[in-house]
Amino acid sequence: MATMKLxxxxxxxxxxxxxxxxxxxVISEIMADPTPTIGLPDAEFVELFNASDxxxxxxxxxxxxxxxxxxxxxxxxPSGYLLVCAIADTAEFTSYGAIAGVSALSLTNSGDKVAxxxxxxxxxxxxxxxxxxxxxxxxxxxxxxxxxxxxxMECQLASNWSASVNPNGGTPGxxxxxxxxxxxxxxxxxxxxxxxxxxxxxxxxxxxxxxxTIQLISDISLPQPHIATSVNxxxxxxxxxxxxxxxxxxxxxxGQLQVAEMADCSGNSIAPFASTKFGMCDSIAExxxxxxxxxxxxxxxxxxxxxxxxxxxxxxxxxxxxASVSLESGLWEDAVEVSPDVRFLYPGDFMVIxxxxxxxxxxxxxxxxxxxxxxxxxxxxxVDEGKVVLFHxxxxxxxxxxxxxxxxxxxxxxxGVSLEKTHPDRNPMxxxxxxxxxETSGGATPGLINSQFTEMGNSLHVIDLFPEIFSPDNDGxxxxxxxxxxxxxxxxxxxxxxxxxxxxTVFTHRKNKLLSTQDxxxxxxxxxxxxxxxPGVYIAVVEVYTLEGETLIEKLGFVLAKNWER
Length: 566
Prior knowledge:
Blueprint: H1 2-15, H2 17-22, E1 25-31, E2 45-50, E3 56-57, E4 62-64, E5 68-70, E6 75-76, E7 81-86, E8 99-102, E9 111-117, E10 123-130, E11 146-148, E12 161-163, E13 190-197, E14 200-205, H3 216-219, E15 220-221, E16 227-233, E17 240-246, E18 254-259, E19 274-279, E20 288-294, E21 304-309, E22 315-316, E23 320-325, E24 332-337, E25 344-345, E26 350-354, H4 357-363, E27 372-374, E28 385-392, E29 395-403, E30 419-421, E31 434-436, E32 463-466, E33 469-470, E34 481-485, E35 493-500, E36 505-508, E37 513-514, E38 519-523, E39 536-545, E40 551-560
Parallel strand pairs: 7-8, 26-27, 33-40
Antiparallel strand pairs: 1-2, 1-11, 2-7, 3-6, 4-5, 4-9, 9-10, 11-12, 13-14, 14-17, 15-18, 16-17, 18-19, 20-21, 20-30, 21-26, 22-25, 23-24, 23-28, 28-29, 30-31, 32-34, 34-38, 35-36, 35-37, 35-39, 39-40
């Protein structure tokens, strides 16, 4: 009788929720895109690892890949691997160890959710992967698996996954080629926030946050009179927190919130006084312009388009799209949403749109990850010239024409160098609006103030210039001189020429140019012969005519200096 009782107790323990919770299967490898094959069968698979101390019987367990797949009643030993594939592909994997065939597998190449669930429907592991996890553009094209590097880590971190380095393209049924190559020592980062209504704000981090580390009163600061009343996970990723606040925020308000003491699930604390803007979206979009463009990137990097918000309304980037414009027909082509997920652009902010943000970050000094948005299908940009349009719900916000000839003429290598606006408010169709990013900036300034940014003049003259001393050496400091035409009237025409101190014409701006009521022109020191003018004193003679017959001739002196430290 005692033996029978012991047997019954043992069975009850085995079937108890406590015992089942101790049975942990981990998703350790994913082959989502097996074609073209490198050295493995041309078939999708998911590899599972038994991270518990006991044998797991898979009767009643399921794999989720967008559909629920019932696993066969097989067993997996402690620290053992099990390969899950479609029943039709099991014969291809007989040499790779234990196999579990399911009705089918359907893994999206660019990204999907995969989860393993016990008989109670509880997930013991889940992964929402995407193709940026390969960290290699060639391997992203197919034939390589994604491997989890640290199988003991329960946090779901994108940085814990990468493309296999095994020459066969993966390691199904065997220890991962990247096993043990990852340790989480990085602090979590608060990237951005947005309000979904007047009392709920979503905080977005770059990795999952351990909710047990959050203390509302001490860890979340809001502008008075607002206070945090509760915080919970917003979705299963753990990277988004839903913050409820009181009293309600007003539409149009943009506030600054601050978090402290929070930690990720590895125990790394967030940087002190991490903060971000928050507010509700406005229905009106205005003031957003294209401020910088890289269309001839370095090897291993990508194009990018930088936006700047000079308006006063908060804009949802889900409603903003970018398209290329045919130079022949003028038609918009390859339009794509700036952000597939909720992302707000607040007044005064930059946003960099790229297919490979991390590669751009590695090439340049930047604001990454702040002010960066990944776009999988950014319209392709020719390396010589092109047009790009930015629009909101079909209404254009800004459009630009770029040309490699807009670069600084003496730049020896234009590859990897962006074109920057010298001021966001300048006419994007005026070639002198654009200038090569400085050499000292590294060739681009994604998410940061442009290296060639020039302040507007503030004198009372109709025509002004800035700076009075400039040095066109592409070091990012006063590389161009800008002439400002202010308070004009429609129909104003200008002629302009630059002379050296001997009175010889050095540079002639195009004649009879029709001006806007406020217009700008920049000179980079290159003369009419295509050579850099020597240091010295120069005079710009500007003639302004109106249709009413009024004439203004103004002479403006300035200095072209040489940076002797270079």
